[in-house]
Amino acid sequence: MSVFRGRYYHTIDGKGRIIFPAKLREIFAQKYDNRMVITNWDSYLLVFPYEEWTVIEQKIFQQSIIRREVRAFQRLFMSGAVDCTFDSQRRVLVPPALREYAQLEKEIVMAGMGRSIEIWNKERFEAELDKSSQDIEIYSDYMADLGI
Fold first, then answer.
1. What integer best gives the mean pLDDT of the chain?
2. Which single residue of 8, 39, 60, 89 could bond 110 by disulfide (Cβ 3.0 to 4.6 Å)?
3. In a domain, 26, yes or no
4. Predicted model pTM
């Protein structure tokens, strides 16, 4: 099973283009059709292969829009979603609204998360990583529950 994994330090150019690392591009090429959806989440961006995104959409659309929290979630998550593909130079253009949301200016981090990829402002990512490292005991219990 091909999954996205690893942490990659990269840059985003002035026009908002990112060259995806070769390892991540290989998975898109081998398992998916190079299409993806990028959306905003918790101060960073989430990238899903288009095929994975359609599964997420189906689950979301099964929820009643009468529920306030469903509408609020869709407003944040779905309204920010943009279809993207690699250009001829293996770059992906991140739209201005998403770049602004995640404060992507120059240095970024791409984190493979299994079925998705996170794109972070480098400083925000490192702060989040530091915070997570301080809570390591919580993760020890989680890993033990998984039988690791």
1. 93
2. 8
3. yes
4. 0.92
- As for how many domains the chain has, the answer is 1
Picking from 83, 123, 76, the residue whose alpha carbon sits closest to that of residue 101 is: 76
What does the pLDDT read at residue 133? 86
Cα separation, 21 vs 50, in Å, equals 18
What single string gives the DSSP state of each residue in 119-145?
Answer: EEEHHHHHHHHHHHHHTHHHHHHHHHH
Question: Which CATH number is 53's domain given?
Answer: 3.40.1550.20
Taking the C-alpha atoms of residue 77 and residue 94, their distance in angstroms, rounded to an integer, is 16
pLDDT at position 60 is 93
Overall average pLDDT of the 91-118 stretch: 97
Vertex 122 angle, CA 118 and 127, to 5°: 95
Q: How far apart are CA 125 and CA 123, in angstroms?
A: 5
Examine residue 42 and state whether it is found in any structural domain, yes or no. yes
Percent of the chain with pLDDT over 90: 80
Residue 45 lies in a domain: yes
Give me 104's structure tokens.
């992507």
pLDDT at 38 over 80: yes
Residue in the structure block whose two tokens are 């330090």: 9
Q: Please indicate, yes or no, if residue 148 is contained in any of the structural domains.
A: no
